Amino acid sequence: MHQPAIPHLAQTDPQLAELVEAEARRQFEKIRLIPSENYVSSAVLEATGTVLTNKYSEGYPGKRYYEGQQLIDPIESLAVERAKALFGVDHANVQPYSGSPANLAIYLAFLQPGDTVMGMALPMGGHLTHGWSVSATGKWFRSVQYGVRKEDGRVDFDEVRDLARRERPKLIFCGGTAIPRTVEFDKFAEIAREVDAILVADIAHIAGLIAGGAHPSPVGYADVISTTTHKTLRGPRGAMLMSTAEYASALDKAVFPGLQGGPHNHTTAAIAVALREAATEEFRGYAHQVVANAKALAEALLERGYDLVTGGTDNHLILVDLTSKGIGGKPAAKALDRAGIELNYNTVPFDPRKPFDPSGIRLGTPAITTRGLREEQMPQVAAWMDAAIEAAQRGDEAALDRIAGEVRELLSAYPMPGWAPTP
């Protein structure tokens, strides 16, 4: 049953309640390897379901446009202070609705339409909002993109420097959505200073690892830091912007009134809870275990002959090129889902296939680490993945169902925050 329980939902809208329970069971029974997903704590779930959702709060603490903020102001201030303490920053804004609007606020704060921005190309591991052509950030601004070396999948900083010197961007983004190696914030900062650009570190994927000391911090290198609050940080679906004091006012004005109206107060409260949890020794151990599990899973896949972009991982994320296995990423991901292993198909650098039918799969260990799996389970996960991919190639659906049953049996021993099977 769902925890916290949802009896009123079940009574008012049993159809929706059944779907919620079915989704919870699905999350319980599958090895969830999508690197941008996780399980939040019951406390975070409770915070998102409070009466705070009833309140409208345009503005910032002490400067609201609606009355009745006596308790909302301290809730938001608590989240802000916890973010500043956890990440060691001068300023934090916890109001952005999600990661993409947070990044768009950065453009609004510092650029005019047509100004030049530089980011990692989407097919190389960057994000849509780092200036990719189909995004508003690529349509409204002049975007130049850096990539990775073909031979090892790593960023070539000589090429990044040459591009920055030639194009003179006002903003440089580092970070992305499919980067399996440590982001070298210091090298990006050196280049940004040389061309007088603002450096933005998008740490959406690795925020929890940074908070837990399992990845270097961009603080002291990046002028602005953007992050979602879910993924490795294990909070609700929201976002934050952090910065040095110099850029605080411009960012705040870009978020409100520039892009948004009232913040989602129930999400703000849940962010505050997640930040408190992330400041504990228990979370620090979790962050390091995420990386240990990813390294163990990467090694197990390498031993089975899989080609990993960059040859492995330094963080939570693994990018697999399936070309040598003779199967595309999309059919592989669908077969794995049938086998109880959830991940996503993904382009790989220099992918000759189309984005909706790419050569790779992307996976990560944040969620399974929350469930309690450790290094010793990773060879079994790799074995199931390998067996499922082979079954997909020969059309053996019975094998996929058998693997799914074995996955369910393993996971039954590992509790899931927010739901438990009815005794």
TrEMBL record:
It comes from Carbonactinospora thermoautotrophica. (6S)-5,6,7,8-tetrahydrofolate binds at L122, G126, H127, L128, E246. Residues 9-385 form the Serine hydroxymethyltransferase-like domain. The keyword Isomerase does not apply. The modification N6-(pyridoxal phosphate)lysine is found at K231. Pathway: One-carbon metabolism; tetrahydrofolate interconversion; Amino-acid biosynthesis; glycine biosynthesis; glycine from L-serine: step 1/1. Signal peptide: none annotated. It is found in: Cytoplasm. One of its GO terms (biological process) is methylation. Its EC number is 2.1.2.1. Homodimer. HAMAP family: SHMT (MF_00051). The record marks H230 as: Plays an important role in substrate specificity. It catalyses: (6R)-5,10-methylene-5,6,7,8-tetrahydrofolate + glycine + H2O = (6S)-5,6,7,8-tetrahydrofolate + L-serine. InterPro entries: PyrdxlP-dep_Trfase, PyrdxlP-dep_Trfase_major, PyrdxlP-dep_Trfase_small, Ser_HO-MeTrfase, Ser_HO-MeTrfase-like, Ser_HO-MeTrfase_PLP_BS, SHMT-like_dom. Belongs to the SHMT family. Its cofactor is pyridoxal 5'-phosphate. This is Serine hydroxymethyltransferase. It comes from the Bacteria. One of its GO terms (cellular component) is cytosol. Keywords: Amino-acid biosynthesis, Cytoplasm, Methyltransferase, One-carbon metabolism, Pyridoxal phosphate, Transferase. Gene3D superfamilies: Aspartate Aminotransferase, domain 1, Type I PLP-dependent aspartate aminotransferase-like (Major domain). GO terms for molecular function: glycine hydroxymethyltransferase activity; methyltransferase activity; protein homodimerization activity; pyridoxal phosphate binding. Catalyzes the reversible interconversion of serine and glycine with tetrahydrofolate (THF) serving as the one-carbon carrier. This reaction serves as the major source of one-carbon groups required for the biosynthesis of purines, thymidylate, methionine, and other important biomolecules. Also exhibits THF-independent aldolase activity toward beta-hydroxyamino acids, producing glycine and aldehydes, via a retro-aldol mechanism. Thus, is able to catalyze the cleavage of L-allo-threonine.
